[in-house]
Amino acid sequence: MAHALSLGRRGMGRTWPNPSVGCVIVKDGRVVGRGHTAPGGRPHAEPQALAQAGDAARGATAYVTLEPCSHHGQTPPCTDALIAAGVARVVAAVEDSDPRVSGAGFKALRDAGIAVDLGVCAAEAAQDHAGFFLRQAEDRPWVTLKLASSFDGRIATATGESRWITGPEARRLVHGQRARHDAVMVGAGTARIDDPSLTVRDFGAVAQPVRVVVSRLIDLPLMSQLARTAREVPVWICHGPDAAQETRQAWDGLGARLFPCALSGRQVSARAVLQALGAAGLTRVFCEGGGTLAATLLSAGLVDELVGFTAGVALGAEGQPSLGAMGLDRLRDAPRFRLAETRAAGADVMHRWLRV
Q: Quick one: CATH architecture of 139-355?
């Protein structure tokens, strides 16, 4: 199952709205087939592994990271493929939360005389498929908030200088994390000030994540990197209902996809943004700021994972904070996370936290 999980992780960021599933087929102690969900979500992992196994699949055990699908969509059910191949046993990590599948896949296999075991590496699989499950449960994607800051929590000096607080090893890890998410998201301020490309670089020819900008009035430069490349790598803009029609038309003409979202006070509603992204199929979003958007997501309880990169440099109180105002009066009201991982990133430290 550990091998199946590693295969499934290869497709992260490229299979939405489908989950990235891994499948390994074993017979007589030997791996005879393996596969993971293809880019775009099809073919699924099981038929690819079965095709590789061929006749060796008969009487074999299939290890899958998620319950095999049992409904007819754009492709036939994976349960039918497993039954037709003569697999004797299916070991699954977790049950599918999709109501079209949940439990029905296992029932179809058992009705065909195939032994089914559930729960192997369940915690790891649940984490890998968390975005897919969250979209089913709350109509929104999993949100990872990345913050790269000085030791005292600053992202720039008082004059705005910020390149580079962290080193090249940390930046390479960030690009790897971008690649494992369906989309990279920033606020309007970051898009204006940094003029980011928000692409995955230095990893060869890889599928690029969708680039999302949250901007109430779409007050974004029309000569920015995002604007110039919107037809090459998708740009989605989540804006308020009061964005000017001419501005909407300009970005639409550049190839951007626009999502009108309700307001919460004077800002675009963070929940409305995520629900719009979920409705569009996204399951995992990597938010890279800025401070206002990060604080809004945290205050709304919509950050599922924090990834921090901390550098051994101090910028002082005059430096720009990594988070905007959150209006907290009591410590008990602050959002809490539990530490999941700590590792060195060159001269910096990466720490990953999950919502409590």
A: 3-Layer(aba) Sandwich (3.40)
